[in-house]
Design goal:
Layout lengths: L1 H65 L1
């Protein structure tokens, strides 16, 4: 009888752990991942814009020096 109850309690623990995982940890992880990826894409966007401006300035300086 004692062995059967330990199996039942073990299964209840596994079910509660899976519930907590899906209820709290996975949404938190996805929100955190969304914030990190959003910040990374925002940073990459500004780096690309700065690079394009730098290329434009270099092109304009090159054009004025050839004249």
């Amino acid at each position: 009888m004692r062995q059967e109850w330990s199996v039942v309690i073990y299964l209840l623990g596994v079910v509660s752990a899976v519930y907590l995982l899906f209820r709290y940890l996975i949404p938190f992880a996805l929100k955190f991942l969304g914030v990190v990826l959003g910040a990374a894409f925002y940073l990459i966007m500004w780096v690309v814009i700065a690079f394009c401006v730098l290329l434009l300035v270099a092109y304009l300086v090159n054009m004025t020096r050839k004249r």
